[in-house]
Amino acid sequence: MTPFDEFEDDTTDTVFRDVILLTLVGFVAMVIMLLPHIQKKKEETEDHKAPGNVIVEMHWPSDMLVDVDLWVRAPKSTPVGFWNQGNDIFNLLRDDLGIEGDATNENYEISYSRGIRPGEYIVNVHMYGLVPKGLVVPVTVVVSVRKKYDTAQQILKTNVKLRERNQEETAYRFRLTAEGDLVEGSVSTLRRPLITSFRARRNKHFKEN
Fold this sequence. Notes:
Elements: H1 3-49, E1 54-60, E2 68-73, E3 90-94, E4 107-113, E5 119-127, E6 137-145, E7 153-162, E8 168-176, H2 195-208
Antiparallel strand pairs: 1-4, 1-6, 2-5, 3-4, 5-8, 6-7
């Protein structure tokens, strides 16, 4: 082998290594530039799939052996609760019987909507089962709204006290715009039974059919 041949081999190896290195650097640079766009798209997709635009949660003490029910009515819709766990707007995701038949020690119910229908929403709590004499059951109700691609934002929170069986109290009445904004001055606790109206609709349906 002549010195010229050795020089040629060294040059070929150097060029080959440079080409591989430049290709690798270019690939890494492309990944770095695309990463923010990939991450943003992933976050938007995951949030879009997350259930619920209007989310209503109800909690009561886990050491109380009582059955409390959450009832929610969207504008121009039927009430949703344990007797009617879904309609065109709301779904009751969890009907908690207290500790009975519960895999967890948390007393908790939640309803969520698909989309945001403008108008008045009503949120009621109902004591379904018997209440030991003298017992007061504190119930916490939280309302949150998730707008498009946003995280859910809490807009309302209150506490309601239940003392007897079949007691139904209105935790909130409020109005939302189509964009999910709370209408100023629309929040009240003016009582509006939901179970009574649902029973009337159900009985009417059975009589007609």
